[in-house]
Amino acid sequence: MDLTYSAAEEDFRSELRSWLSANIPDEWSRPGFWEALDDDEDFRIRRDWERDKALAGFAGIQWPTEYGGRGGTPGMKAIYDEEMVLANAPRTVNPLGLTFLAPTVMAIGTDAQRKEIIGPMLRNEVIWCQGFSEPGAGSDLAALSTKGTRDGDDFVVNGQKVWTTNAVHGDKIFTMVRTEPGSEKHRGISMLLIDMHQSGVDARPLRQMSGASEFGEVFFDDARVPATDCLGEIGDGWRTAMLLLSFERGASGISQYTEFRRQYDEIVAVATSLGRDSDPVIRNELARVLTELECLRLHSMHVLTQVEQGRDLGFEASMTKLQWSETFQDLWEVYDRILGEYATQDTLPDGTDLRPLNAQAMWSRSVTIWGGSSQVQRNITAERVLGLPR
């Protein structure tokens, strides 16, 4: 395991850090700034800022230069992830497109798809959503029922998707549709790229218990999509989806560690404010989760070393998802125990605003489910990595 970065990578860190310092307004770090904005204004600010970042050369760090990327190393991408968190930079408005769709298009898209999708996505000219989950097909994607009926050169799509990130602000959606009548399970599914700005598409927000509405549900009512806007082969969407989802596992976990470590310090500050930092039980819990965090850091550097050496992580990537999600959840369970009777409050007696922390605590309940549940990741690790019997 290599715990160092090259001189060129450290130069990149300095360049990126300087740009972030000069381009993130101080008011964005002011407590309550983002919470005071409505969803549309929040999205607009982040979209414009991310576009400027891309134009400055700080986007698509590992992407080939031919696609508008920087052509950087895995180490540069890890540094980028770390510095974005340390600078408290706004989160991306195009997460699913950048993480999943773009590398898939690079790998198997047509020349026209590469030209039309990758550059505009990098500059946030087009916001992409992912349409996989349905009311009757959550964890079992093969049970989807949204249908695409061939009509000349088009597919006519009818059905519903749910838990779609950025559905209301999306311009296009990459979605799984059953395009072969009578097909079942994994067969006869295609990944279609659908324009959301048409009369046959209706996106509605879903309000979460935290008050946020980043998710939505999407209804297709005779929405039309050219057959040429199929990513991969028609009827072979399952293979395309598995390739697309594999790119989620390529990250080393460094950005997660950096963010969680900062949140840990904020939780310790809450414990101190409430006078619970001297409680031996709380101290033991904080020490335990800090140990988990440092194990995540070392694991992340191990994964980065493997990637830099050109190794395909394969099923071992399930270990990373399992480790960071369980660590994150453990961290916020300690926070809940620290709060005690203040668990239903928005502020502490000293005026500390708990709303951002409370939102993270609620979000933590979901991370061991989405992206592959912990139960599934344990099975994969046991069977595929350790070679244990079913």
From TrEMBL:
Gene Ontology cellular-component annotations: plasma membrane
Key words, A-Z: FAD, Flavoprotein, Oxidoreductase
Domain Acyl-CoA dehydrogenase/oxidase C-terminal: 235-386
Keyword Oxidoreductase: yes
InterPro entries named in the record: Acyl-CoA_Oxase/DH_mid-dom, Acyl-CoA_Oxase/DH_mid-dom_sf, AcylCo_DH-like_C, AcylCo_DH/oxidase_C, AcylCoA_DH/ox_N, AcylCoA_DH/ox_N_sf, AcylCoA_DH/oxidase_NM_dom_sf, Mycobact_Acyl-CoA_DH
Pfam annotation, one family: Acyl-CoA_dh_N
Start and end residues of each Acyl-CoA dehydrogenase/oxidase N-terminal domain: 8-125
Gene Ontology molecular function: flavin adenine dinucleotide binding; oxidoreductase activity, acting on the CH-CH group of donors
Gene3D superfamilies found in the cross-reference section: Acyl-CoA dehydrogenase/oxidase, N-terminal domain, Butyryl-CoA Dehydrogenase, subunit A, domain 2, Butyryl-CoA Dehydrogenase, subunit A, domain 3
Keyword Endoplasmic reticulum: no
Cofactor: FAD
Family as reported in the entry's similarity comment: Belongs to the acyl-CoA dehydrogenase family.
Protein known as: Alkylation response protein AidB-like acyl-CoA dehydrogenase
Organism: Pseudonocardia endophytica
